[in-house]
Each structure stands twice: as structure tokens, then as C-alpha cells.
Design brief:
The complex is a heterodimer of chains A (305) and B (180). With 305 residues, chain A is α/β, with parallel strands linked by helices. Helices cover 32% and strands 25% of the residues of chain A. The longest helix of chain A is centred in the middle third of the chain and has 26 residues. By secondary structure, chain B is an alpha+beta fold. Chain B has 2 domains: 110 residues, top7, de novo designed protein (2-Layer Sandwich); 63 residues, no CATH class. Chain B is 37% helix and 29% strand. The chains are: A alpha/beta (305), B alpha+beta (180). At the A-B interface, helix 5 of A face helix 1 of B.
């Protein structure tokens, strides 16, 4: 079992921590260097976490456990208008990122209003590419009730954020109240407490998704697949995106078009098999990135037979 | 600035008071506003916002915002903000002998200055009202695009909805507009 943590510290000697993670059989999920500071998101075996804590202390860095590491979360706003952005959607996104997840922000084309709101199939498809969707809605409970069809049909767990403290409707498992429409930054103690509650709900949603997958486990951990790709695929280190490979709960997303990617992984083998035999590889119709969905054990066995 | 929210449940009202306060702060008009009335009917999706301005300011003339040196025939403008307004006014009359020699200094012949010194260059209340209108648009829900606007010397009222506004809603807006 791996424990995810975020390390924030100086660039000097940070490579010692990276080496330690590697020696312990852990993974480096994300690495961001900003001038002389470094932020690392790491996954280390549970029993060796103490060693990482000691190393972080020695380097005078900050080590925080991040429950959402290894997941991709889409924050959906009713529109991209000034009514909803940058507050609170960007603040929500920032707080989720601080807890280790990779976030996407998305504004619906016609998500506003009671009678006129709607969602398209394309928008649903884009949302479902992530592991969890977080909907940031408004202050009025009546409006929230009229907008349930925006997330009713989404196949991934949905967390709804809204103004009313309590909002109960059938089919909605995760709701956090107190974050409706805002026009200022959310950085007061009261707001941060709500954000903590939000992270708890999102963690539950990610956990639910992981439990669903554990019922029929994947043949390869997404973190292993990421490492194999990083070590073998030429050109991944040249991708200018800050996170060239995004970890999902059931696969990875490589920010490279499929036609380039397919040529590069043709000859890569892992455990005597080609990468293509471990996962379904396709191009996202929306972003153009390559998505690798790892096969489950039962599916893999059925193919082998 | 007093904020009065009506027609909504207590908790939603509190949220809207905070939202209105934040929006007014963002537009930097809190000190110029006396009262904000907000009425919300979520069942029919009708929202009315009415804002009272504290006081109507006098329009500013050229002689209020600039000093003219008769010997050098140079007009020194106190604030850069007024320079484009003064220049556009001058150029609408004549370009002969008029020259902007520094960012805030304009060379103007004496006879032209005497003609324009009492001209109005800036209406502070109009500017404030534009800001108030923008702030109201931000307060109202984004979907409420159908608007019924009422303006008076010290009051701006906007009723809005995503549907066509009924006569009752317009009457209610009128009533809020005339309220103290």
C-alpha cells in the first residue's frame, strides 16, 4: 500500500529525497520547480513513510499527506462568466491542487439559469475523462434542484458545491454547502474549513472510484505505467505542459497526440509483453491527448484465453 | 451602506448580503451608496435590485480641474484622467494653436481658453451610475438577461428574469424604485 505525500522545500539537495523515494520502491508522481523552490508529489510504501519524514525534516522541507494524489478532478462551473470565475472556481481548484490532485476547470456553454440551463453530450464526455467531477453551483436551493440534470447522467462520482447548508436529492452522494456564488477570494478561516470539508467529500468520491476498480483489479498500477512510459518513450520530457503524464485512477493520460505516441511505444516491452497488450490506447476526441486505460485482470485473462 | 434582501429564505439572504457587499467593494462604490435593495423570487426567477446613491455631485468644468497660465498660454491639468476629455473638447472646436506639450500640459491661445473655460469635462455622477449599473448586472444572476431598467437622479433599479417580465414584476420594480 502506498502513501501519497507532498514535499515543499528548497531545490538544494532535493534530489536526495528523489533518490530515497526511488530506493524505497516509491514513485515520483509530480515535480514542479519554481526558481529555487521545489514541489514534489510522491508515493512511498506505507512502512517506509518514516524514512521520508526524517529526510524531509533533514532538508528543512514541509511534508504533507495528500489524499487526492494520483487523481484527476474536473471542476465544472455553470459558465465562464465573471459571475462564477475567478471566484470561487479558481480558489476551489487551487485548494484541490494543494491536496495533490490534477485539476481541470471547465465552464458549461449553457449551464446558467433555471429553465434555460442545459448540458451537451460533448461536455459530458469531457467531464467523464476525469476521475471525479466537482460542480460549483449557486446560492439558491430551488435553482440547484432545477439543475440536477447537469450531473444526473455523469458516469463518474460527482461532488456538488452550493450555497445551501443542506441539499438532499436522490442520487447525489456528495454535497458541500456554504460555497455558493462569491465575489472575493476565499481565504478566511471559515472558507478554509469549508474547503477542508470539500476535500474530505472529494476523497470519499475518489475512494469510491478506487473501491469500484478494486473489485476487479487492474493488471498494472497506473504509477508503474507512468514510470515505464517516462523511462522508455522518447519525447515525453520535451512536452512543455507542466504535467506531461496525468495519473488517473484507472490509467494515465499522456499529453501527446496518438499518432506520435503509437510510433514511439511500438517496441516497448514490459514483463515480456508490449504496452498495447496491457491497456486500451485511444485519443481523446476533445483534447487530442492520448489516453491509456489499463485492462482489468478478468478482461486481460479473457483476452489471453 | 445598508443592504436589504427580501423574498429569500434567511440563509440564502445572508449569502446574498455577503455577495452584494463583496461586489460593491470590488467596484469601489461602497462609500457612494446609501442603500441596496435586493428582491429575489426564485420560483418565478424574478430578481430586482435597486440602489440609492448618497449624493449627486456637481459636474466638473475645465477651470475646476486645470490652472491656466496667461503669460505662457499653458493649461496645467491637475489629473491626467481629465487630459483626453479636455483635448477632445478642444479639438472639436479647433486644432489651430493647440498643442499638448507635456502629459498634463496643453498650449492653448487665450481667446480659445476664454471660450471653453466653463465647459463641462466630467460628470462624476454619470460615471458612478455606470459603475452602479455594472455592479447591479453582477449582483443579478447571470441567466437573468431580460432586464427592465429604471433610473432617476439618485436611484437605479433593474428588474430581471430569464423569462419575459410580467406587468406585476414591472410594478414591483417601480414600487422598489420609489421606495425610501
Amino acid at each position: 500500500m502506498f502513501r501519497m505525500a507532498l514535499f515543499e522545500g528548497g531545490l538544494h539537495r532535493a534530489d536526495e529525497l528523489e533518490d530515497l523515494v526511488d530506493d524505497l520502491g516509491g514513485f515520483l508522481i509530480q515535480k514542479n520547480i519554481t526558481q529555487i523552490d521545489i514541489t514534489l508529489i510522491i508515493a512511498v510504501p506505507d512502512e517506509d513513510y518514516g524514512l521520508i519524514e526524517a529526510k524531509a525534516k533533514e532538508l528543512r522541507g514541509k511534508l504533507i499527506e495528500v489524499p487526492l494524489a494520483g487523481s484527476e478532478i474536473t471542476i465544472v462551473s455553470p459558465s465562464l462568466g465573471k459571475h462564477h470565475l475567478p471566484h470561487p472556481v479558481c480558489d476551489i481548484s487551487e485548494y484541490i491542487r494543494r491536496n495533490g490532485a490534477v485539476t481541470n476547470v471547465m465552464g458549461l456553454a449553457r449551464g446558467v439559469g433555471q429553465r434555460i440551463n442545459q448540458i451537451t453530450a460533448t461536455e459530458k464526455g469531457m467531464i467523464e475523462e476525469a476521475d471525479v467531477a466537482v460542480y460549483s453551483l449557486g446560492n439558491f436551493s430551488r435553482c440547484l434542484r432545477k439543475k440536477t440534470h447537469l450531473f444526473d447522467d455523469i458516469d463518474i462520482p460527482v461532488v456538488v458545491l452550493g450555497g445551501p447548508k443542506i441539499f438532499n436529492i436522490e442520487g447525489l452522494d456528495y454535497y458541500v454547502g456554504g460555497i455558493g456564488r462569491r465575489s472575493q477570494r476565499l481565504r478566511q478561516k471559515y472558507d478554509l474549513d469549508i474547503f477542508d470539508a470539500m476535500v474530505k467529500e472529494i476523497s470519499k468520491a475518489v475512494e469510491k472510484r478506487r473501491r469500484e476498480i478494486e473489485e476487479d483489479p487492474l493488471i498494472l498500477e497506473p504509477m508503474y505505467l507512468k514510470k515505464i512510459l517516462e523511462e522508455n518513450v522518447e519525447g515525453i520530457d520535451k512536452i512543455i505542459s507542466p504535467i506531461p503524464i496525468v495519473l488517473n485512477v484507472d490509467g494515465v493520460k499522456v499529453k501527446m497526440p496518438l499518432n506520435q505516441f503509437k510510433d514511439k511505444i511500438k517496441n516497448i516491452e514490459f514483463d515480456g509483453r508490449k504496452i498495447e497488450e496491457y491497456c486500451n490506447i485511444y485519443q481523446s476526441p476533445y483534447t487530442g491527448f492520448t489516453i491509456l486505460k489499463i485492462y482489468t485482470k478478468s478482461y486481460f485473462e479473457s483476452i489471453r484465453k | 451602506m445598508e443592504i436589504i434582501v427580501e423574498g429569500l429564505p434567511a440563509q440564502e439572504s445572508e449569502g446574498y448580503v455577503a455577495l452584494i457587499n463583496d461586489i460593491m467593494r470590488e467596484f469601489e462604490i461602497r462609500r457612494s451608496i446609501e442603500k441596496v435593495y435586493f428582491y429575489g423570487d426564485t420560483e418565478n426567477f424574478v430578481f430586482i435590485t435597486s440602489i440609492r446613491i448618497k449624493k449627486v455631485l456637481e459636474p466638473l468644468r475645465i477651470e475646476d480641474v486645470a490652472i491656466y497660465n496667461q503669460e505662457k498660454e499653458i493649461l496645467s491639468v491637475e489629473d491626467e484622467f481629465y487630459v483626453p476629455k479636455i483635448l477632445s473638447l478642444l479639438w472639436s472646436l479647433s486644432k489651430e494653436g493647440i498643442e499638448q506639450i507635456e502629459r498634463t500640459e496643453i498650449k492653448i491661445p487665450l481667446e480659445i481658453f476664454n471660450n471653453i473655460k466653463s465647459e463641462i469635462v466630467y460628470y462624476p455622477t454619470e460615471d458612478l451610475k455606470n459603475n452602479v449599473q455594472e455592479a447591479i448586472n453582477r449582483v443579478l444572476p447571470e441567466a437573468a438577461r431580460i432586464k427592465y431598467i429604471l433610473t432617476a437622479e439618485k436611484t437605479v433599479t433593474v428588474a430581471s428574469s430569464e423569462n419575459a417580465l410580467s406587468e406585476d414584476s414591472k410594478k414591483l420594480a417601480q414600487k422598489m424604485h420609489e421606495r425610501d
